[in-house]
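Model: Ready when you are.
Researcher: Fold this.
Model:
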Amino acid sequence: MRLHRGSVPLVSGWHQGLQTTRATVLTKICPFGGFLRLLGNVMPAELEQMVRSIAERARAASLALAIAPAAAKNAALNRLADLIDGSHQALLDANRRDLESSGANGLGKAQVDRMTLSPSRLGHLAESVRQVAQLPDPVGRVLEEWARPNGLKIRKLSVPIGVIGVIYEARPNVTVDCAILCLKSGNAAILRGGKEIFQTNAALAELIRKALGETPGVPVDAVQLIPTTDRAALHALLKLDSLVHCIIPRGGEALIRFVAENSTIPVIKHYQGVCFLYVDRAADPEMAERLVINAKTQRPGVCNAAEQLLVHAEAAGTLLPRLAGGLVAKGVELRCDPASADILARARIAHKAAMPPDFTTEFLDLVMAVRVVDSVDAAIAIVNRDGSAHTDAIVTSDEAAARRFQAGVDSAVVLWNASTRFNDGFEFGYGAEIGISTDRLHARGPVGLRELCSYKFVIDGEGQIRQ
């Protein structure tokens, strides 16, 4: 089927089956010779038909991709990396147009930072694509094998999940990260980004489809971007449990809760990143200062930035002023409990009295809550009560205290003498991540290639029958 604006046909696979009698199609020539398409005034039934068509093609692509050779998938990835490297200016121009509208959309500072591309970030993005291409193919990996007394030979093999829908907000890197991880793990991806970054996402998605289209043995519908941010399209996607096998939301708590509450498809998620850094009495002061400042300020608007600082009472008198001074010098606002406020008042370091909600808040900004605790066990109890089971760290030279903290804290990632910022697929050597999960089932922590696979049993027999 063709969409028309006047007498000009707009041809693309994503709108197959979409009725256009009530649709307004706004078209802009995009830097790569294609079209940037925005749909308006489309009836919900028509959006549902469009999304179902996308999902049907994704399902067909997933079956072909599941048996595609690793060489073909890697070739597509390397081609994509080259296309990103060669398209910096066009991508930056698309991103600039999105950024120019960010004020009207009421975005905060942290959101603008997340949606901003730069030459260095694009270089990092291309490098992550190449790293994923170099990783071992997870599909077909033998997880277990054994023989039964009756002669049956049983193997448990890693296989793709199938079709994965990714719902995200103002994060252009997610478009590429999710596409490449799904592709390498043999899954088809349906991407639905936010309106604030639509032009950037569309430009990146076109590069991805160009790379797929130029690579023999890889279905072009393995990655599709839903061409509208209409909420009705999202509702339709979340109900297609016969075609889509997993949903991964990436964004703020409101988005993730909406997806989890409205999806009939299994969801891999985390709601918040209320990450703690506990400085023990045996912490090296120089190391503690370096780690605290990095965990809070290196990129404060991301989910693995430290939001909460705990300091052991025996070290707080001398160590807390040093840590606080370094944080304040970086522009961090400190919200303190009475014990830490008293220490900083005597040291004449700027701070504010914390309100109870501050101790469970993901600030996503240059704000940090501070408390003094009496022991490592008290720190563990506070982290488990007030944290979000995402990423927490201890700074100490006492290995026994470190191991106790790591064993006792019930979070996806628990670090000893390292910044919370290392809970990241790229830093884990995954090349990229499709998200960080705080769930207990299937995946926890950075979700990389292996976490995007399920398994099946393959059994070889010689005519055995059940007695």
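Researcher: Now this one.
Model:
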Amino acid sequence: MRAALLREVDGPFELVDVPDPEADGKVIVRVRAAGINFADALIRRGRYPQMPELPIVLGSEIAGELEDGTRVMAMTSGSGGYAELAAVDRAQVVPLPERASFAEGASFLLTFLTAYLPLTRQVRLRPGATVLVHAAAGGVGTAAIQVARALDARVVAAVGSAEKLDLCRELGAEEAYVYDDIPDDLRCDVVVDPVGGPLFEQSFGRLRPLGTTIAIGFAGGLWPELSPAALVGRNVGVQGFYLGRLIRHEPQVVGDALAELLALWETGALRPVVGAELPLADVERAHELVESRRSVGKVVLVP
């Protein structure tokens, strides 16, 4: 089969022939779409906290078909998705809704679980609460807007460039700003932050008493050191979220949340945003879109 192989940090992807994966207790999925997550870009640049052994075929989220033709979406336990075939743990395989495309399937699981679990399990999101979403036009951001709206919250979206504002409003954000234009007096109950860096620290100044910042990722740089005094003095909090660890240690919690998400998707309350679909041979260009922040939603490879 063909796969996009990464041999070294900062190296190019090589489209090569590799042996077909062996089932070895897993199921084989013929990959029709593979989602690119920012973690893939961090691994390529050597910045991921738990670096895998190289060379590697990246790709932790796919959609495709089982041998009997059943349409599915799946998580791959961290690698193997940028290929024509992938071996996946049976527990990580989910039926793809009938009306969903393969590209949408490869854009759903990681992004929506990452948005939904913190907003339903880690914070109390009362109706009418204000949720500020950083990187709101990205994969997790577009999911977080929709999830928060489905939970009857008021959403404020923050993005890096003006051309992304309309998408955020279309998805349900009542207000949308480029970062530098966020009103100084904006106050919120929850901040969803996949960015990290300076934005993470600034988010605490926007929280109302008893508000919470949810730290999801560090696409904009590692989190600064945080003293408990900064939280205690303002009656605010921070919650950290890492889906991979939660899947390993609390699979039932993740499974229950996934069932709830699928039900919402079926009602039309949620839809994965596919920003670009590119052939597997264009994996370099796909990663460039993600790393340059020029993409919206999920960038998907089509083997």
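Researcher: Key takeaway?
Model: DSSP finds ten helices and 15 strands in the chain.
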